[in-house]
Specification:
Glutaredoxin; alpha+beta; 53% helix; 224 residues; globular; 4 strands
Length: 224
Amino acid sequence: MHDLKLFVAPGTCARVPTIALEEIGVPFETELVRLAAKQQKTPEFLAKNPKGKVPTILIDGKPLTENVAILTWLHRTYPDAKLLPETTDELERVKQIADVAFFSATVHPIVTRIAMPMYFLDGEGAYDRIRPKGAEAMGPVMSMVNERLENGPWWYGENWSVVDGYLFWAWWRITGVGYSADQFPNIRDHAARIIERPSVARAMQREADNIEVLKSEGLYLAPK
């Protein structure tokens, strides 16, 4: 059995591997990284992940970064959890990685422009200028996702996967700062279904507990 420690922060995409680990059902530890205190920039953390980001996972003490890599490793190491659909077709395997990469490399950067526009421009202008541009870019992407969900309740039809966890995080992040859900009913219904999944509920409880820790320390930054 592997010794697993996942470094997380509430609201970040570290939720996705947290959901995956809860779905797998193996013991794992999460460690809160206090972003408001710039703990991710300390020498101790940078020694684990020089990029200064979460998620970072320690596997038997060895770090692995980037959600695409983390989720791929978890899927291959714990195949019985079926984080991605079973297939013997190598092209299909690569397409599954492409689906995870789509959320990591295409959706996620747009999410950041909507949810955290201050990363791109100082002052209130970030919300007036960057966020609308992010919402504009997100429209066709979410339209494509909404259309895909016509084929079933999950990304892969009847089969839940960790890709659904990534979609859930992205949707939660943008609607949490006011992005309209009305024009994408399939994604809205997807979010309502997934929140009832036990693995997701446990992951969200971990986040809620960490939020309370941050509040007690005066380090919680609520989404604006």
